[in-house]
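re: ur question from the group chat, yeah i did fold both. here u go
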Amino acid sequence: MQWLFTHIGLLLARLISRLPFRILLLLADILYFILNRIYAYRKTVIDLNLMHAFPDKKSEELWFIRQNFYRHLADIMAETIQSISISEKKLKAHIQLHHESYEVLRKYERSGQHIFVVLGHYGNWEWASLLAGLETKLPSYALYAPQSNKTFEQFLLKNRSRFGCQPVSMLHMKTLYQQLQKQPSLVAFVADQTPVDTDNAYWTNFLHIQTPFHKGFEVLARKTDAIVLYASIRKINRGFYELKFTTITEHAAQEAEYAIAEKYVRLLEKDILYRPEYWLWSHRRWKRAGIQY
């Protein structure tokens, strides 16, 4: 039964993805109303996250962030559906690499080193992953978390690899390491997911909360002496984003343990503090850090 419902849902998504973008924005407006007023999607999780992350903010301020987050989440859902059939030209019109970051990427491509790009669930990370396959001349990979619904996972893998970026499961880091022995590559990591094995995670203060982070990207970066870039995804307008790189290190092998992870956390935190509504507050980010959802 799950297989049937999944296929029906994916078929509808393919059909909706071909609608004009202005129509998708209208659908996002309807979805925002449903998420906010009718369904109250994960409201308790969102409120708990916001209260712990911003203990000094008044309830009115937290309410304002939640409302804007729901609107952004509805936009992200519509934009993700659009990515099913979006063309290269249209994708580049909706998410652009900052001109200075374009030059930085070209320079590092000539270095002969691997380029690791780390980002968070901020802005539109799905479109950023699609753009990676178009903007680099190197073989490109994107790490992803396996899905319990295998039909949906296969759909995601096919969609995310449309423009050349190859998805790699987080469970197959050894396979990725073997691939990286062959030639310089670009690898994208969405690195703010909650690690299952918190005993082997990197713990640090993040938004006023002691938080575990995956350290696999740093371990692999140091092992391969990769260049590590942080990708900041700024929302310019509804449906339009700008991607900008900040260099964390040009030689990961020379960095002290956890230095790369710490720099990543601070850059992500800076983006969230700047415009908090664009981060994914609906996931149980601190379920292993003491917050009872």
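okk and heres the other one u asked abt
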Amino acid sequence: MFVATKGGLRRPGGAWVVDGDPGWLRLSCERSLQSLRTDCIGLYQLHAVDPKVEFQRSLEALIKLQEEGKIRHIGLSNVSPAQLEQALSATLIASVQNCCNVFDKRDFHNGLIDFCQARRITYIPYSPVGGHHDHARLSREPLLLQLAAKYEATPHRIALAWLLHKGQHILPIPGASKTASIRDSLQAANLALSAEDIAAIDRLPDR
């Protein structure tokens, strides 16, 4: 089992507040080590670039934690192609975790996914079946319903299979709150979509 987690957020009153301060990143990492009862986290990702903190300072904090053996691999989340390139000038980046699904293909359009493939960086799409806002839309999208009937699968499985077909470096992370959804998601790895059907999904308009 490979454990991955993130740092760089605060939750005052349940809100999501970005905090890339080096001191907070260190404290967050050390708390995660305690919670996970381990000496080293396999993959530790910066949750988002903090506009109030120089990006280089956040990166240096993660690099220091890696040098101390508390992090094995450094990853980034919610980053642009330019931010990824800046990070690569300072250290190796193992992964990028951004929002990506059939209704949000911005990282295909801006070249980030291709760039990750060229640099052997794992691309981890979060909300791969639409997330909080668009997951129900999958079950209403005519194309996905048509393909679900064709392949005897669910629209969610079609959406995951589409991502898996887009590159061997792509590792979607769907939600796992129900046993049935976990089993359905796992079957996406064995679903072979035709090139024509992949292209049809590619043409679906983004939200």
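fwiw on the second one: The chain is about 45% helix and 15% strand. Residues 22-36 form the longest helix (15 residues). idk if thats what u expected
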